UniProtKB/TrEMBL annotation:
Principal subcellular localisation of the protein: membrane
Protein name according to UniProt: Uncharacterized protein
InterPro entries: Oligpept_transpt, OPT
Gene Ontology molecular function terms on file: oligopeptide transmembrane transporter activity
Organism whose genome encodes this protein: Didymodactylos carnosus
Length: 365
């Protein structure tokens, strides 16, 4: 649609690439499933009511609220492109994107990156992430609280009306102390690695792990009933940025929070698969534990080879790096999305972008 008038800035913002994509249609299945991996995974597997819910939310926030905030210049959003996921700062009256690699090399440059500016789309998206998690927790308590309490007092043998539970009750269950023992050993090893590897003060594991455990049940219920998933990655980033002020500890905190969610949901999914396939819970537990240990050793070895050989810079490989925790560690979460942020205080109304250094709002492709 943006080809109607490629030189029209507003039309490109509403319909073009890095814009809002109004009227864009994609028929390539690989692109469709790849672009919605974090939420839908596959539109075929998602129930109709969940798709309608997502569609209504998408249209309201992306095609109504964001244009409304942007074109009315709320919080001076028009100083940046309408929707771009980068952090910007003011330098001599010109707004530039933060050089994350420079911040990683020299964290003392933080004084040059205040205040931090977000695009309208990125700001709305970040606030929606926090709002969605809060809504999910409240929804779980109100609508599933009684069922959760009832399930804690129910065993496989007490479900005579479920043929799967009746058949699985013949297998000896994996004792709970197996899981407790694995957790204790893993926690001790993690604490030792965090302390002696100078990755993060080990006691912050007592914050990262409960945070993920609290989110795990609501996210699991939502994923089981709607096939939709919620990613705690960004929430963990800003949570860590609020209590930590260095990049490496923030990386470590996010790693434990995010990976704990992924592997926990994967374990639950595998246990559910074994339940319907009538696989012994003890056999499944042993296989899961063995595969986890082997894959962890292999992945650690591969990562060490990549880091020590400097293959990303010398061999022309493309190695993905997320600089968001670096920015959060150097700048602080409160200056990006908290009470000290420009989005809240609206303290950047007087800043004007240099015409020679202004950003392209959207591209018509």
């Amino acid at each position: 649609m943006c080809m109607i008038d490629p030189n029209n800035i507003v039309l490109s913002q509403l319909t073009g690439y890095r814009g809002l994509g109004m009227g864009a249609l994609v028929f390539d299945w690989a692109t469709i499933t790849d672009s919605i991996t974090d939420s839908f995974s596959s539109p075929v597997l998602v129930p109709r009511f969940a798709q309608i819910n997502g569609l209504v939310g998408f249209v309201f926030f992306n095609w109504f609220l964001i244009p409304l905030l942007y074109y009315t210049n709320v919080s001076n959003f028009q100083r940046l492109p309408i929707s771009i996921t980068q952090y910007y700062y003011n330098k001599y009256g010109t707004i530039l994107d933060i050089p994350a690699e420079e911040v990683m090399r020299n964290s003392t440059t933080v004084k040059y990156y205040e205040p931090i500016f977000l695009s309208c789309g990125d700001a709305v998206g970040l606030y929606l992430v926090f709002g969605s998690l809060a809504a999910l927790l409240v929804h779980t308590i109100l609508y599933h609280g009684k069922d959760i309490l009832q399930q804690f007092h129910t065993s496989l043998k007490r479900r005579e009306n479920d043929i799967h539970c009746t058949l699985m009750a013949k297998y000896p269950e994996a004792p709970e102390w197996w899981y407790i023992l694995v957790f204790i050993v893993s926690f001790i090893i993690s604490a030792i690695v965090c302390h002696y590897g100078q990755l993060m003060p080990w006691y912050y594991l007592c914050v990262a792990i409960p945070f993920t455990i609290i989110c795990l049940l609501p996210i699991g219920i939502m994923h089981g009933t709607t096939a939709l998933s919620f990613n705690v990655y960004f929430v963990a980033q800003f949570f860590a940025g609020a209590i930590l002020n260095q990049a490496v500890p923030i990386f470590t905190f996010v790693l434990y929070s995010y990976q704990l969610q992924l592997v926990s949901l994967s374990l639950i999914s595998n246990l559910k698969f074994g339940h319907y396939m009538k696989i012994s819970p003890r056999s499944l537990f042993i296989v899961q534990l063995f595969v986890t240990v082997v894959s962890s050793l292999i992945q650690s070895g591969v990562n060490r080879v990549v880091v020590t050989s400097d293959i990303c810079s010398t061999q022309g490989w493309s190695c993905a790096v997320d600089y968001s925790p670096v920015i959060l560690g150097a700048v602080g979460a409160s200056k990006i999305i908290g009470p000290e942020s420009v989005t809240i205080t609206n303290s950047a109304q007087s800043i004007i972008m240099d015409s020679n250094d202004s950003k392209i709002d959207a591209v018509c492709i």
